[in-house]
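EI: anyone free to look at a 405-residue chain?
SC: sure, send it
EI:
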Amino acid sequence: MKTILVVSTLDTKGVETSYLRDVIKGLGKAPVILDISMRQPEGAKADIPPQEVAKAGGSAFEEILASGERAKNTAVMTRGAQAIALNMWKEGKLDGIIGIGGSTGSLMATDVMRALPFGVPKLMISSTAALPGMSTRYIDIGDIALLHSVIEISGLSDILKNVIERGAGAICAMADVSPIKAKRADEKKPAVAITMLSPVEGCASGVREMLEAKGYQVIGFSAAGISDRAMELMIEEGFFDGVIDLAPGGVIEHLVGGMKDAGPNRMEAAGKTGIPQVISTGGVNYITPPKSKYTEEHRARKKYDLDKFRTWLRASPDELKKAAGVFAEKLNRSKGPVRVVIPLKGWTNFDMPGSATYVPEEDKVFVDELKKGVKPGIGIIEVDANIEETAFARALADALVRMFN
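SC: here you go
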């Protein structure tokens, strides 16, 4: 029988959680309630009580009850719930996880979900899923499904029962699908991760087609600061045999506080695991600071409007130089083979002669600094083409294939 972990706060959602448990049980699954309450629950009983959760989080529930430090208590209970859930999964005792709650409950439960690997079924029934900015915090880089209850999760009305029943049905059905596992050593079809964005989408599609024709699987990630962070985690979890980092702009975005900031660890996982990686420069010569934080200097820069919502500003030579230093530092730590493939005629599909943002002499600042910084053995290949030309896509694909051979 498949086991569904139910994460909730029984001090405020006891009746509703009990109903969710009963529906899951009626659907032929084994529910296990994990209680992340920070006050003494009454009535409903948990399979994993808050005392056990607090202990796993490095504290005691009595300390939680006596403390008025809500942020600290939340961290303790979340940490304990994460440890318990992850241990259940490692022991083969968890086939899916579902949470039910409002703002605090949703934040804590989804934090627990993200501690579990990609592919483990995850669903959050939340009354605050539609609040501005909340859904992105709940999901972040996790493969979490959100069910917006619309109404408050308070009292078993017929409407709320229906919401709970739909959520239970969804997680039970998801649990019946075997989760994807990390690559096995005996699998013959190598899996390759590739980053992409709309200004380099043609190149990404060309690379995918070329590699698929040679028997590779190619899995794309939008390099907008979320999916590329998720890619780093999945690389560490062993899902991929190689990487083509076509659009690693999240690195320079982290330096300047851009909208596509992918965090301090971007472009490091492949190096740590030692899998082959091909790095390019798609979009690296542009930054996307929030418009609310534009300076006069930002407003004076060359820019390209992707649409009415997104504006890309040219990175300054100083920013490009700093980014190249960070690229070199990260790549120099790589345990596996690395190749850097750079187009000489533009790093996006709008980087063309005649375009106001086409400044190849500034792009050269990045290239020259990178050449000075990388250690011997990291090959830098320059291709006399725009990043969207077939010749460049072929150079990327060939560079990876040669490393596998």
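EI: The chain has two domains: 3-175, 191-404.
SC: 👍
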